[in-house]
Specification:
The protein has about 325 residues and is an alpha/beta fold. It contains 14 helices and 10 strands.
Length: about 325
C-alpha cells in the first residue's frame, strides 16, 4: 500500500510538472497591436470590447494611431507586435530590413462593398473622370491611395501619365478642397465618400467589386516565431468578431461610431460594413502592388510572396 501511495504521489508530481511546463510554454504574452480609427478595422475593436480576445486567453491592447506613419514608426521601434493596415506598408518595411509578415486579409472591396472613390465637386464643369484627372485630383502620393487611384483611372483607359496629381496628404483638408471646388476631383475613403456625396459631390469611380483595396493584419517575424499559438488565437477572435458584425450589425453600431471616426451626421445611417472570412492575402494583388512600388522606385529589393506573407496562422 505504501509503495502504491508513493507511486501515485510521484505520478501526480510529474503530472503537475508537465502541466506547469505546458502553461509556461504556451503562456500568451501581452499583445500590443496597432490599429487605425477606420471602419475596416471594426472587427478588432469589436473583439476587444466584446471580450473575444480574453475568451481566447489573450491579453490584447489595441493601440490606436491617427496616421499610418505614426503606426509604422511605433512598429519599427518595437512598441507594438503587429498592426492593421494596407498591403503596401509591410512590403516597404520588409524591403527596408524591418522583418514583418502579413498573415490575414481582414477586409476587401469585393461584391458591393466600396472603400475608396474619386469624386468631383458639384457644381463642376468636369463631367467625366478624364476631365477631372486633367484638372487635378487631390491625393497622397506614394501611398496605397495613389495605387488605388491609378487602378481606377486605368480601368477607364486613363494612363497614369495623363493625371494631374495634387498633393494633399491630410484627408480632412482633401475633403474640404473637394467640397469648396478647389480641385477637379479627390480620392477619399469611406465614410467620407458618403459624407461628400451628401454635400453634393458627384461620384466618378469607386473600388466596389474590384478587390484592389484589401486591408491586412501583420506581425513581426519575431513575434510569429515565438508566439504562433497566440497569433492563431488572435485571428480566431477577430474572425468571431467579423461573424458577429455580419450577423448583428446593429449590435456593433455604437462601437463603430465611437472607434472608427464616423462623422456625426452619418452615425445612424452609414451602413455597417460586412466582412469576408479571414483569408491569406491574395498573391496576385500582393505582387501587383509590389510591382507598382518597384516601378515607382519606392522598393528596389527583389522580393518574393513568401517574404511578405506568412501562411499557417488562419483559424
Amino acid at each position: 500500500m505504501e509503495k502504491k501511495m508513493k507511486r501515485t504521489a510521484i505520478l501526480l508530481s510529474l503530472t503537475i510538472s508537465i502541466l506547469r511546463s505546458a502553461t509556461s510554454v504556451f503562456a500568451a504574452p501581452v499583445i500590443q497591436f496597432g490599429a487605425l480609427p477606420v471602419v475596416q478595422a471594426l472587427p478588432l475593436f469589436v473583439a476587444s470590447e466584446k471580450g473575444f480576445f480574453k475568451d481566447q486567453g489573450l491579453s490584447v491592447e489595441l493601440v490606436t494611431f491617427n496616421s499610418a506613419m505614426e503606426k509604422d514608426v511605433a512598429f519599427t521601434s518595437g512598441q507594438i507586435a503587429g498592426y492593421f493596415g494596407d498591403t503596401m506598408t509591410p512590403m516597404v518595411l520588409e524591403a527596408n530590413k524591418v522583418p514583418i509578415k502579413m498573415v490575414a486579409t481582414i477586409f476587401n472591396t469585393t461584391g458591393t462593398r466600396r472603400m475608396f472613390a474619386i469624386l468631383t465637386p458639384s457644381p463642376s464643369p468636369h463631367k467625366t473622370l478624364s476631365e477631372a484627372a486633367s484638372a487635378g485630383i487631390a491625393v497622397s502620393s506614394n501611398t496605397i491611395v495613389e495605387y488605388i487611384m491609378t487602378k481606377l483611372l486605368e480601368s477607364q483607359g486613363i494612363p497614369s501619365g495623363q493625371v494631374n496629381r495634387i498633393e494633399v496628404k491630410n484627408i480632412p483638408i482633401r475633403l474640404q478642397m473637394l467640397l469648396s471646388g478647389q480641385v477637379g476631383g479627390a480620392i477619399l475613403p469611406e465614410p467620407l465618400v458618403t459624407l461628400a456625396e451628401g454635400k453634393g459631390a458627384r461620384l466618378l469611380a469607386d473600388d466596389s467589386g474590384r478587390g484592389i483595396s484589401p486591408t491586412v493584419l501583420a506581425f513581426s517575424d519575431r513575434f510569429l516565431a515565438e508566439n504562433p499559438r497566440a497569433v492563431k488565437a488572435f485571428l480566431s477572435a477577430v474572425a468571431r468578431a467579423a461573424a458577429l458584425i455580419n450577423g448583428n450589425p446593429s449590435d456593433v453600431r455604437s462601437i463603430m461610431n465611437r472607434c472608427c471616426q464616423v462623422p456625426e451626421p452619418l452615425q445612424q445611417r452609414f451602413a455597417v460594413p460586412s466582412f469576408p472570412r479571414l483569408s491569406l492575402p491574395d498573391q496576385s494583388h500582393v505582387m501587383d502592388v509590389y510591382g507598382w512600388l518597384r516601378t515607382k522606385g519606392i522598393i528596389k529589393a527583389e522580393m518574393t510572396f513568401k517574404q511578405m506573407v506568412a501562411d499557417g496562422f488562419l483559424p
